[in-house]
Structures are given as C-alpha cells and as structure tokens.
Amino acid sequence: MASLAKRAVAELVGTFLLVFFGTGAAIITLMISAGQDPTTTFNIGIGVLGGLGDWLAIGLAFGFAIMASIYALGSISGCHINPAVTIGLWAVKKFPSRDVLPYIIAQLVGASLASLTLVMVLGMDAVTIGGLGATTPFPGIGYWQAVLVEAIGTFILVLTIMGVAVDRRASPGFAGLAIGLTVAGVITTVGNITGASLNPARTFGPYLGDLLMGGSNLWNYFPIYVIGPIVGAVVAALLYQYLTSEDTTL
Amino acid sequence: MKCYICAQEGKDTDALAICIVCGMGLCQEHIIRQEMEIWEGGYPFPSEKVKETLPRILCPYCYQALKGE
C-alpha cells in the first residue's frame, strides 16, 4: 500500500479535479447567462440557458471528473475525494480511524486550491458572478429541508459506492462509471434545491475562496453541507451492511 | 511427457513441468519460473501488495512474448 503521505496527495489531487471541473462548470454557466433575466425567483441563472439541461451539464462535469479520478487514483488512495464517503466507510469499519483526519484535511486542501485556481483562470468574475460555485439553499428552501435533501443525495451516492465497489460480489471495473453517472443524476435533480454538494469538501473550497477573495460570506450555511452528507453517508453504509449481512436463523 | 525443446535439439529428456501458456513440456534446463506480484483491493480502498507471490512456469518462447521483447 502507498504511504499515508502519497495517499493524502492522491486525495488532494482527486478533490482538486472534482472541484475544479465541477464548480468550474457551475461558474461558467453563471458567467454565460449573466445579464439575462431569470423568469422566476427560483432561477439564479443556472437554468436560464437550457432549463434542467444546465444542471445536467454541470452534473456531467462533476460526474466525468469523479469518474476520471476514480480510475486514475482509486488504487492509490481509494479516491474518496469526499469527507462524507471517508466517514461513511469508517462508520462500517471499512476504513482505519488513524487515516480519517489526514484524508479529510487533504480533501479540504485540494478543494480550496481548486477554487483559488478557478479565480486565477477566470478572474474576479468567477467570484462576483459565479460565487465560485458555492452551494446555498435556493429561494424558498428551509435550512432543515436543505439538510434532508443533502442527506438523501449523499445516501444514494454512498449506497451506490457500497453496491458497486465495496461489495466483493460487484463486477470490477464499473465503479467509476456508475458512481460518476450517479452523481450527475443526483445533481440534475437536487442542483436547483441546495446546489447538490453531497460533499463537505466541495462546499468548503468555494466558501473559503469567496471569503479570501472578498465574495459572499456563506459560512452560516456550511452545517447544511456537513450534517446532511455525513448523515446520508453513514445511514447508507450502515443500511447496506445490514442488508448484506448473513441471516443467522433460517 | 518429454521436453519439447530438447526433442527439437535431438535429445530425449523427461519433462518436469509444462508451460502455463502454451502447454509445452519442459525439462529443468528449459523451465523459466516467474514470480507474479498479487495486488488486493482498489477503489474505494487503497490497493495492497500481497506478501506472497504467485509462481508460474513458462517456456522460453512464452516468457519472451509476455515480456514484449
């Protein structure tokens, strides 16, 4: 097995790719649609160009980045690139406690570097127009509604990971494709509700970038994107473990 | 079974093993024993190299072909 340092670097790089390409797609969509009048208050600009198709495009950008990261880095670190996934696997004793914190730190650093790199690449419009792709509940969505939606989205993600990758009966080789497309599908539906983070690191990077670059201070929403994904991930991992445990009585 | 390579050279030598790829009978002189690394795990767990290697017997022809030289 690669050393913890090498595995942490792999997590950092994987999370960087996820946030750079995923939130980059959201930022660019907002920059392209800037100046156009959304027809409803529920529309913040993503959806002006192609309705739910805008969210599908953003979802696929996330999905393809995740798929590439899994195939490239999966055998090195496991390519969790998401603190909720790391904690979910730890909850069912599939991941050692001593590695949890280093993995999460690497994921947060990777996400933050990606957001700052997007500012370097796109300029300050990425902050002022795109908000660095930061996630917040959409108009009319309450705090706990948002937590519930994030939990459900991450539940589906981790349930898929358990079924296509953790379970030894799964066909090898399909994990990256299945998980990438699952994330794309979840973002298409959940995107216009909470921004569809499903990942505390994916929200942390843009929040920190916005704060450092003089954008919005959104940290009061951060617990939504920590509690929701972690609860969803842990429940999914525990449920899958229960469903696949062998019955002792006939 | 006799060693195929020795037979080609006009010698009559008993085979001790067969090539796992082509099935050629091989004597001690023509056996190539290769130790293959085994890796376990992969997404979402880091891959780990198993301590024990997997031995396999090859003939010189298949060994060269698999090495790509």
How would you sum up this structure, described in words?
The complex is a heterodimer of chains A (250) and B (69). Chain A has helices spanning 4-33, 52-77, 83-91, 97-122, 125-128, 143-166, 175-194, 200-212, 222-243. Helix content of chain A is 70%, strand content 0%. Chain A has one domain (4-243): Glycerol uptake facilitator protein, CATH 1.20.1080. The model of chain A has no long low-confidence stretch (mean pLDDT 94). Chain B has one domain. Chain B is an alpha+beta fold and 69 residues long. The interface between A and B is medium-sized, with 21 and 10 residues.
CATH topology of chain A: Glycerol uptake facilitator protein
Structural class of chain A: mainly alpha
Global shape of chain B: elongated
- Fraction of residues in H or I helices of chain A: 55-70%
What is the rounded distance between the termini of chain A? 40 Å
How many β-strand stretches of chain B? 6
Please trace the helix and strand order of chain A, writing H or E for each element.
Answer: HHHHHHHHH
Task: Provide the low-confidence segments of chain A as ranges.
Answer: none
Per CATH, the class of chain A reads Mainly Alpha
The CATH architecture of chain A: Up-down Bundle
The H-level CATH homologous superfamily of chain A, spelled out, is Glycerol uptake facilitator protein
SSE map:
The complex is a heterodimer of chains A (250) and B (69).
Chain A: H1 4-33, H2 52-77, H3 83-91, H4 97-122, H5 125-128, H6 143-166, H7 175-194, H8 200-212, H9 222-243
Chain B: H1 4-8, E1 17-18, E2 25-26, E3 32-36, E4 39-42, E5 45-49, E6 54-58, H2 60-67
Antiparallel strand pairs in B: 1-2, 3-6, 4-5
What descriptors fit this protein?
heterodimer, A: 250 residues, mainly alpha, Glycerol uptake facilitator protein, 9 helices, 70% helix, B: 69 residues, two-stranded antiparallel sheet, 2 helices, 19% helix
Give the gist of this structure:
With 250 residues, chain A is an all-alpha fold. Chain A is 70% helix and 0% strand.
